[in-house]
Amino acid sequence: MREEVIKVSSKGQLVLPADVRNELKINKGQRMVVTVHKGIILMKPVKKLSEMKGILKASKADTERIIRELRKEWDIELE
Fold first, then answer.
1. Which residues contact residue 62 at a Cβ distance below 8 angstroms, ignoring those fewer than 6 apart?
2. What does the alpha-carbon distance between residue 35 and residue 43 come to, in Å, rounded to a whole number?
3. In the beta sheet, which residues pair with residue 34?
4. Is 55 or 16 the better-scoring residue by pLDDT?
5. Is residue 48 very low, low, confident or very high in pLDDT (cuts 50, 70, 90)?
6. 27, 37 in Cβ contact below 8 A?
7. What are the residue ranges spanned by the domains of the chain?
8. Can you tell me the distance from the alpha carbon of 61 to that of 3, in angstroms, rounded to the nearest whole number?
9. What would the mean pLDDT of 41-46 be, rounded to a whole number?
10. DSSP notation for 5-39
């Protein structure tokens, strides 16, 4: 684990250091999940659905159905 010191702008924005973005393959416009746990902020990149396909031991039809359901849930949360 490593630590980096970053600054919060007047708009509440954070700039992740380039080496962190490169290591985690975080690109411009990518969505991040932010979790607060016991006073600690955790951030992780949201995985693309295409990267998640096949992680379940299910048939292709089951996987595609699960992906459709997740997309519906995410669309509702983002509105």
1. 56
2. 6
3. 43
4. 16
5. low
6. no
7. 1-46, 47-79
8. 43
9. 86
10. ---B-TTS-B---HHHHHHHT--TT--EEEEEETT
DSSP H or E stretch at residue 69: helix 60-78
pLDDT for the residue numbered 55: 59
- Cross-strand pairs, 49: none
List, in sequence order, every residue forming a beta bridge with 41; answer none if it has no partner. Answer: 36
Contact between 34 and 48 (Cβ < 8 Å): no
In angstroms, the CA 47 to CA 51 distance is: 7
- Element housing 42 (H / E): strand 40-45
Three-state DSSP class for residue 1: coil
CATH architecture of the domain covering 1-46: Ribbon (2.10)
From 74, 4, 70, 9, select the one nearest 41 (Cα to Cα): 4
Q: pLDDT: is 18 or 24 the higher one?
A: 18
